[in-house]
Design brief:
It contains 3 helices and 10 strands. The protein is of the alpha+beta class and 166 residues long. A hairpin with a 2-residue loop joins strand 3 and strand 4.
Length: 166
Amino acid sequence: MMVTRTHRIILMAVLLLPIAAQATRQSPDILIMDGTTFFIQGWKLDFPLEAFFEGRERPMYSRNAEGSIGTNCWRGYEAIWTVTDGKLILVSIDTFLGGNKQSVSDVVGESCFAEWFSGEIPVREVRYARGKYKKMVLTFDRGLLQSRPQPDASNGPGAADAPPNQ
């Protein structure tokens, strides 16, 4: 039987797909807004702090003093954010650098206001009742909340955009 290029491509796809499908879910950052806690879960630029490092040398953060990075948190940190008066604020970070625990000011300097971030943040509400939770995408411009979907009783969570509460 002659093995063609098409056969090789199909064989490679069959062998490699399970590897991609088993990627480890990344541990989320947390965002608190209007008294509700949300998970920020996504990839690279979905996490607001990653925008801070664009164009800068990014330190090799780790989740513990030994310097190891788990496959569930390639960023090497978990952050807690709030939206206060329409502003995205970094309030806490759990990370180490060179074996030393880092604070928010160690990582971003004196300003906790995420003025460096413009873009969308996909979030899901932390609610475990019956496995249902609200998903939303929050839009920011230079750290200021521009829009967010509002739940709509007719079609469930995340309907139309509405201006932020201020």
